[in-house]
Every structure is written in structure tokens, then in C-alpha cells.
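Working notes for the structural subgroup meeting. M.R. asked for a predicted model of this chain before we commit to crystallization trials. I am recording the input and output together here so anyone reviewing the notebook later can reproduce the run.

Input as submitted:
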Amino acid sequence: MLKQSQLSPSIRAGELCHSVTIQAPVYAADANGMAVTPASWTAVRTTMAAIYTAGGRETSMASQIVSQVSHVVKVRWTPAAIKANYQVLFEGRTFTVQYVENVLERNRVLLLYCLEVDGGGQ
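Returned structure, recorded in C-alpha cell form:
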């Protein structure tokens, strides 16, 4: 469970210890002119972050066990917009951004509430 200090509007020395890349989706229109799934991803920012596990669950999808783990990724604020449906890459893992919070609207810390989905469990 996350502690209130981990979600604070300040960053402690040494807290941002993971290098992550934040990517934005690039959509391409299909035959009907609609873009539903990203055709590719483009890097928006590579930065240091703190990653906290917020919770998780396992479900069964298509006769496979799939784990869904929620994370909070804490980064320094940036004027470049980070939005829902962006993704965070960390050591071969992918987190999908669900929600972005500018802590206390102070433009110092962003909390990226993410979901990591891992299919192919046993």
C-alpha cells in the first residue's frame, strides 16, 4: 500500500532511482478513416522516476491467467503534456497511463497512475 509521503508534492533525495521512457501513441487511420489502436509509439521524455506498486489482481481471459498490477510512477513535472493512454517503459515492462495528477497543482511533481498487464501467466 502506498504511503502518503510517497504521494507528496516534493521529491526526496535519491527517490527517483529508475530510468523510464514515456511514450505517446501515434495513430494511423484504417480503411474507414478511424484510428482505434496505436500504429506506433514515439518517445516524449526519458527521465528518472520512482515506481510504487499500488495493488493488483489476477483474472482469467481467453483461458489464460492474466495479472493486472497497478503502479504509481512519480516524475518531475514537465510542461510537455503527459496524458492517459501514454505508456511508460521500464526495464522491458510496459505500464499504460490511466490518469495523470499534477500534485497540488504546483507544477513540481506528476503522479502517473498506471496499469501493467502481463498475459501468458501460468
